[in-house]
Amino acid sequence: MPAIPDESKCQYVFLGKSGLRVSNICLGAMTFGESPGGSPGQLGEASSHALINRYVEWGGNFIDTANIYGRGTSETIVGSWLAKQERDRFVVATKVRGTMDPTNPNAVGLSRRHIIDSVEQSLQRLKTDYVDLLQTHNWDDATPLEETLLTMNDLVRSGKVRYVGASNLVGWQIQRIVDVNRHMGFNQYISLQQQYSLVCRESELEPFQVCNINGLGVLTWSPLKGGFLTGKVRKDQKPTEGRLGWATKEKVNMQSAPTWSALDLERNWTTLDTAEKIAKARGKSIAQVSLRWLLQRSVVSAVIVGATKMHQLDDNMGAANGWSLTAEEMKQLEEASKPDIPYPYEMMWRINAARKNPWNPTGYV
C-alpha cells in the first residue's frame, strides 16, 4: 500500500463541547461480520483488521460500532483487534437499545436492566475495561427518560463508560435529554450520531439547531447515502450492485440504502452533477467532495465512513486533510442540495435573516 503523506492524514478535533479529541473521520464497523438478513459484502475478521490497520495509517483513532451490528459480531471483531493495541490511543464508541435476543422481552430498549446488561456484554466482546462513548441508539417510548439517563450517568461514574451520546433523534428529544441531565446534575451528552449527507439534510431543521445551541458534536452516518454520492449510480439506471443494488432488488427501505424511488429525485441528480463538476475541477473524487462538504459544516465533529474494500477506504480518507472546498464551492453544493423548507422554518429564518446579533447566538447551522 502507498505511504500516506503527513499533510493528508486525519485532523484531530474535539467531540462536541467535551475535551475528547477524535480524528475527523471515524471508521464505522457496521460492515464487520456477517449479519443474518443483512446487506451483502460484509467483511470477515482478517479483512476487517486489515481495514482498521489501514485506517490507523491514515491517522484515524476513532472506531464506531454497536451491539446490534451482527448482534455482537462487529464488536467481537473490533475487540480482537483492540486487544493487540495500546488501548489508550483509540476512541471506541458503541451503542445500546436494539433487540439483542428476540426471545427475551427484556433484551431491548433503554431500561436500566438492558443498558447495564448490554454494556457488560459489549465490554466482554470489545475486550476492554471501558467504552469511550456509549450512545443510546434511538428513543425508547417505553422507558422513563430519567431511568435511562440515571443509568447512563451511573455507568460514567463507575468508569465503565467515559462519555455518553445519542443517535437518531428529533429535536425535542435531544433538548429533553439536555434539560433533564442539567436539572439532575448528570453528565451531559456530548454528541449526536445522525444520518447527514448532501441528499439527506432534514436534520438541519431541528436536531442540529439543538446540538449547536448545547454544544453536542454531530457524528454523521451514511455520508455517501449507500454509495449514491460516489458517482457509481446514474440517472435512469437502477443500481444493480452494492448496497443500493441490494436494496432495490430486495425492495427494502433502509435509511442507509433506501429504495430507488426515494433517491431518484431531480434535486439529487442536480446535487450529484454539481459535486461531479467540482470534483473534476479539483482532481478529486465525487465521494471526497461530498465528504469534504460535511467536514466543513460547523456542527459536524466527525464523519463516519464504512468500507468493504481497501480502495474505498483510501478514497474516503482522502477527504480528511490537505485541502478544502472554497466558499464558492460550498455555496454551490449548498444551493444544489437545499431541500424544501417547510413552514414554520422558512418563515422564521426569512424574517430573522436581518436580525443577527453576535451577543445572542442562535442555533442556526
From TrEMBL:
List the keywords (alphabetical): Oxidoreductase
Instruction: Tell me the InterPro entries matching this sequence.
Output: AKR_Detox_Biosynth, NAD(P)_OxRdtase_dom_sf, NADP_OxRdtase_dom
Q: Which GO terms describe its cellular component?
A: cytosol
Domain NADP-dependent oxidoreductase span(s) in chain numbering = 24-337
| GO terms for MF | oxidoreductase activity
> What are the coiled-coil residue ranges?
none
Q: Which family does it belong to?
A: Belongs to the aldo/keto reductase family. Aldo/keto reductase 2 subfamily.
Give the protein name, as stated in the record. Answer: NADP-dependent oxidoreductase domain-containing protein
Q: What organism, scientifically named, is this protein from?
A: Littorina saxatilis
